[in-house]
Amino acid sequence: MYHAIVRRKVRALWRAAGSGRGDSGAAAVAMAAPDLRFRFVGDGVLGADLRGRDAFADWFERAGRCIPGMRLSLTDVVVAGWPWSTTVVVRLRIEATLADGSPYENEGIQWARIRWGRMVEDTVLEDTLRLEQAWRRQQSATAATG
Fold first, then answer.
1. Rounded Cα–Cα distance for residues 95 and 118 (Å)
2. Percentages of the chain per state (helix, strand, coil), in multiples of 5
C-alpha cells in the first residue's frame, strides 16, 4: 500500500514538473529536504552537484532558461523501501521545441531517495550529448533573432 501511495505522489509531482511552465520545478523543490543533494550527471550546460533546496531551485530556473518550454513526462516509476528510506527510480521522456523550430527529444533516469516524505538525494542521468546539441541550436537560433 505504501508503495502505491508513493507512486501516485511521484506521478502527480512529475505531471506538475513536466508541464513546461516557468515554475515547473516548484513541486520538486517543495518536496526537497533542506539539505538535499542533487546531481545532474555530466559536465554540460546543466551538469550539477549541489546541496540545498535553494541551489536546487536555482538549477530548475537555469534549466528553464537553457531550453524554455521543456516538457517532462514520466514513462515508468519503481518504488522500494519504507518511509524512513524509500528509493524511487523514474524513467522519463524530455521534449521541447527549440527557437529554430526543431524538436528536442531526450530520455533520462532519476534515482531519488526519500526519507519521511522529503527528497534527500536526487540523481538525474540524461543523454548529455543530445542535450548539449539542443542547447547549441537554441543558442544559435536566439543569437540570430536577437
1. 27
2. 35, 40, 20
Residue 6 to residues 30, 61, 119, 140, 143: CA-CA distances in angstroms? Answer: 16, 26, 12, 41, 43
Range list of H helices, 18-122:
26-31, 53-66
Cell numbers 521534449: residue: 95
Q: Which residue stretches of 53-127 are H helix?
A: 53-66
What secondary structure letter does DSSP report for 113?
E
DSSP, residue by residue, 75-86: EEEEEEEETTEE
51: cell is: 546541496
Chain centroid to Cα 5, Å, comes to 21
pTM: 0.90
Per-residue pLDDT of 44-72, as tens digits, reads: 899 999 999 999 999 989 998 899 888 99
Phi first, then psi, for residue 94 (nearest 5°) are -120, 135
